[in-house]
Design a protein that fits this description.
The protein is α/β, with parallel strands linked by helices and about 400 residues long. It is about 45% helix and about 15% strand.
Length: about 400
């Protein structure tokens, strides 16, 4: 599990144990990801213009700004655009001081009972996520942020990051596997440690952590853009000589599902169908309405399909597993989307630009999907030169699963 950090300086991120504690869901700058990006930036130190077409939580963007690079990151999820932008922003000492004043004002107002709690967001069966006391505190805290902070202000963003951290600390949900689960209310670690938990003190402590991290300003600024990685020319007019990115892995892991609590509480989602609709627009995840749409999806004549991929799809669809056809459609659509992305990305790169795709292979019903080889072949087909696969690390206890850097040079 990873913690939600507003900012991290590359020189000490390696030592931060993001795998400890109950924080989770967002994959906010795990240390190994920072290490990989750092190594790639140092390796390509002469290259100055960086693109991350799958921004996520902004790891590449933030590391690049500490190296003084010009960076553009693109994501299709407006919440992630806000999150990465907040992490990469420069904060003045006046902003930090004013944010602390606002935090103290909110704290006093909660203590004095001067805030009317907002309505709980329409998360299905929300009591499984937070108990009654926790929900009341979260509703009251959000009311305080809404009441005392100007909209679209840096102070509000810092306080909302703090709010997101508290959402995780108090939650009973676990996203450490494909299907979400809920822990027994009595096993909530915070409540075990202190059954008379002072929620207001928790807020003050978390705000201290966020403010401490936010004071480390990067050298340059990052441009975080809302857009589709399959149509990058609509997202930026710039040209780039370095690409570092980690696209969604083809493992059906829905990042929208993981992000739902944040997106509901912060107003990025209003109803359940919106989550499924957004999942359908993304690459790699299927959840909710997106899963049923996948059954009707058909490849077009210009889809990427090699003999190797075709054989894998046939094995999957002809297996005796009931979801074999669905998963074959999923894999086919995934590589169709990535093929469109690669054709788009070539047009926003300079000649001799270096690209790095951090990808992981996948396992479907015992069949290994050689994602790194398919990426290698796609890059060659698009016209990239010097395509190379470099193993990075073993992903988990399953022997077949690894992460790779598939690198290449643009023509």
């Amino acid at each position: 599990m990873q913690t939600a950090i507003l900012k991290q300086r590359p020189d000490y991120t390696y030592k931060f144990n993001v795998e400890s504690g109950r924080h989770g869901w967002l994959r906010l700058t795990p240390a190994y990801s920072v290490k990989i990006v750092e190594e790639l930036l140092v390796e390509s130190s002469a290259r100055q213009s960086v693109l991350d077409p799958f921004s996520g939580t902004g790891t590449t963007a933030l590391c690049s700004t500490y190296h003084g690079k010009n960076v553009v990151s693109v994501d299709i999820n407006s919440f992630l655009v806000w999150l990465a932008s907040t992490k990469c922003r420069h904060y003045t000492s006046d902003t930090m001081a004013y944010t602390r004043e606002l935090g103290n004002l909110i704290t006093r107002s909660i203590h004095n009972g001067n805030l009317d709690p907002i309505s709980a967001p329409p998360i299905f069966d929300i009591q499984r996520w937070w108990n009654e006391d926790e929900l009341l505190f979260l509703r009251t805290l959000k009311s305080g942020i809404d009441s005392f902070c100007a909209t679209e202000s840096p102070e509000r963003d810092i306080l909302l990051i703090t709010f997101c951290r508290i959402l995780i600390k108090l939650s009973n949900a676990a996203f450490n596997h494909q299907s979400m689960s809920f822990k027994d209310q009595h096993t909530n670690q915070l409540l075990i440690l202190d059954r008379s938990l002072d929620f207001v003190r928790l807020f003050a402590n978390e705000l201290d952590v966020v403010l401490s991290s936010a004071q480390h300003n990067p050298i340059t600024t990052a441009k975080i853009v809302l857009g589709d990685a399959r149509d990058l020319e609509k997202c930026t007019q710039d040209k780039f000589d370095l690409l570092i990115t980690s696209p969604p892995y083809p493992n059906r892991m829905s990042y929208i599902r993981e992000l739902r609590p944040y997106m509901y509480w912060l107003g990025y989602l209003k109803e359940a169908r919106e989550a499924g609709d957004l999942d359908w627009e993304t690459i790699g995840g299927t959840w909710g309405i997106a899963t049923s749409r996948l059954m009707q999806w058909k490849p077009t004549s210009d889809n990427y399909l090699t003999d190797e991929l075709s054989q894998f799809l046939s094995k999957l669809s002809e297996s005796n597993e009931k979801n074999g056809v669905l998963l074959a459609n999923y894999v086919s659509k995934y590589f169709s989307d990535i093929w469109n992305h690669l054709n788009s990305v070539r047009r926003v790169l300079t000649t001799n630009a270096k690209v790095n795709y951090i990808v992981g292979n996948s396992l479907f019903y015992g069949f290994v999907l050689p994602v790194e080889i398919i990426y290698q072949n796609m890059l060659k087909s698009v016209g990239f030169d010097h395509v190379k696969i470099t193993p990075i690390r073993k992903r988990n206890s399953k022997k077949a699963l690894f992460e790779y850097n598939v690198s290449a040079i643009s023509p």
